[in-house]
Amino acid sequence: MCATCGCDGDVHEHEHDHEHGKVVKLEADLLAKNDHLAGHNRAWLREHHVVALNFVSSPGSGKTTLLERTIRDVGKELGLGVIEGDQATTRDADRIRAAGARAVQVNTGTGCHLDAHMVAHALQKLEPERGSMVVIENVGNLVCPALFDLGERAKVAVVSVTEGDDKPLKYPHMFRASSLMLVNKIDLLPYVSFDVAACVANAREVNPSLRVMEISATRGDGLDAFYGWLREVRT
Amino acid sequence: MHELGIVQEMIEIVSTKSGGAKVKRIVLEIGKNTCVLPDAIRFAFHLASEETVADGATLEIVETSGEELRLKEMEVG
Q: What CA–CA distance (Å, rounded) separates A100 from A139?
């Protein structure tokens, strides 16, 4: 029925414009495509007995340095392979290979995060062995990567003491989505005003069940506990 | 940045569902916990809808409290 004149539309010529169109219900989840692909990745990983972790942080928190050290210390034992996400260059993948692990670089171009589709392709290229572990080093960004499931078993958020200890409050989505928070660069604590206890309290405020470890990827503090967690999450 | 990808997905869905008919209005629900910015969505929509069935369509954004990111309905014709 025409809302303007009340007619059924066939009876007479309409002089007024029919502004109203047909309303189509859609109810479409806009992340459904990514979630669906992430589900495929998860199934593929399970089938191949591979555990994937998604490492997220701001740029410069020390993710790549931590991975280099981890590869040197326990890379063989855990069968570590790495998917490196950056907007440009293969610098990080080169560093990972030099440390002795297989790596696939994904360049997102203008994109601010990795999505499940990119990771699906990277997994095919990486060909992780049965029983191995894949670390996905996401694009340095505490916002968008929280939104995109990649098929990982857990997210690991890395913060460094050269950042603010209120980061978990300012970027709550990422810390809520993570299972473990690594507070990195604690060897620099004497030179900065970062309050570890405050940072941990802030993180637990947004995610009460978050595991926390204080580490220094360069000096080695806390890494045994971190490696223990990797072994634990693998089983 | 991720808003552009979301808008492209949205335009893909309305293009398919409208069967080529012009889309006049789109209703999108965005939850506060999604880290998706309504203003960035509007800006991206303005750019990405050019020369598509959604060119010139009104974009209505309903802001909700949860984690919804849902294309609710569209008006075609």
A: 22
Q: Is residue A146 a contact partner of residue B35, using CB atoms and an 8 Å limit? A: yes
The Cα angle at residue A176 between residues A172 and A182, in degrees rounded to 5? 90
Phi, psi of B30 (to 5 degrees): -125, 120
CB-based contact B34 A147, cutoff 8 Å: yes
Phi, psi of A55 (to 5 degrees): -90, 125
Would you call A233 helix, strand, or coil by DSSP? helix
Token duo for residue A136: 């996905």
**Out of B13, B35, B36, whose CB is closest to A26?**
B13
The answer to whether the beta carbons of residues A152 and A180 sit under 8 Å apart is: no
Return the residue of B nearest to A113 by Cα.
Answer: B2
Full-model pTM: 0.81
Q: Does B42 touch chain A (CB under 8 A)?
A: no
Q: What residues form DSSP beta bridges with A128?
A: none
Place of tokens 């709550």: A172
**Which of A18, A19, A24 to mutate to probe the B interface, most B CBs <10 Å?**
A24
B76 touches chain A (CB under 8 A): yes
Quote the ipTM score: 0.88
Helix axes A223-234, A63-78, angle to 10 degrees: 50
Q: What Å distances lie between residue A146 and A57, A159, A233, B42, CA to CA? A: 10, 15, 20, 21
pLDDT averaged per 10 residues, chain A (length 235): 48 50 92 92 97 96 97 97 93 95 91 90 97 96 88 97 96 94 98 98 97 98 98 91
Q: Judge whether A16 and A4 are in contact, CB under 8 Å.
A: yes
Distance from CA of B55 to the nearest CA of A (A): 15
Q: Where are the beta strands (DSSP E) in chain B?
A: 23-31, 58-64, 69-76
